[in-house]
Amino acid sequence: MLSRLNLLTRHIARPFGSIHSSNPTLSTSSLSRCSGPSVMTSAANLKPIHTAACLIIGDEVLGGKTIDTNSPFLAKFCFGLGIQLKRVEVIPDDEEDIIEAVRRMSARYDFVVTSGGIGPTHDDITYQSIAKAFNLNLKLHEPAFERMKRLSKPHPMQPKFDWDTPSPSLTAKLRMVELPYDPNRSDESQAIFVADDMWVPIAVVNGNVHILPGVPRLFERLLLNLKPHLVPRLSDPEGKGTFRFLFSTPMPESAVAPYLTELAAKVEPKGVKVGSYPRWGKKRNTVTLVGADKAYLESLVAEVEVGVEGKLVVKEDELDPPSDTEHVFSQ
Questions:
Q1: Exposure winner among 18, 141, 160, 212, fewest CB in 10 A?
Q2: What is the pTM of this model?
Q3: Residue 155 has pLDDT above 80, yes or no
Q4: Are both 80 and 196 inside the same structural domain?
């Protein structure tokens, strides 16, 4: 610990832009470019985004202590942009599991988002594990550290904390700004600041792995603010996204299955998916059409309404008969 504190002392005494690492030194000018406009400029050189995957990291999710709301939020986010979310996995705070999962996802999907494990405690090992997955070192990202000092406040229970005095608390905070660094990639492509009032950067590893915190309000805000960086890489750069048409039918799934099988084969070449979802305990079920071509989906509405003996609706329960309780109060 003493040698670590001595190293921190030397680092903090250096001018802004000097960074301790076994990797080549990052210059102040290059690191300061890790914000919006420069990333937008380089977006044209990145691969298009068609598919996505989500990796939820945390023992607390697997242990039932915390309910994962980040993957559903990402699913809606991707749906709205026309990105196909192909996989969601939940894994423990285990280095081997993180390494295996992130390598596999990075190789298979265009846009990978991880959630969790980037805090100051001993079990927050996401940065170091993802660095190992791609044979990278961790490097202090000084712009993030400077923003942390400017935008965050010491906890009331740490009244003697000082940014310029080496301490276990400072060491813990620095864990959150030591990011995987690839000397073969441009500096501005490896960490993105998406909000002026947030010090947390989105670290980007191997070109497509985006490391986000697990705290839902931070995860959601960072992801929403990342959107302008993603839109130029979408197959539909106008960001029209994907459309979902809902049909409410009184028919059981087994009754509409033959028609839906024929319909699915017919619309598959147009990139449309057909879904059928039972609503247990209800008198009406749901059929869905999902695709990017809104005009084509609209052309199918009349046919599907006849085929499932149902109606196009905005909400699944739109045509549900009133419950017994509702009937009593309506007398």
A1: 160
A2: 0.75
A3: no
A4: yes
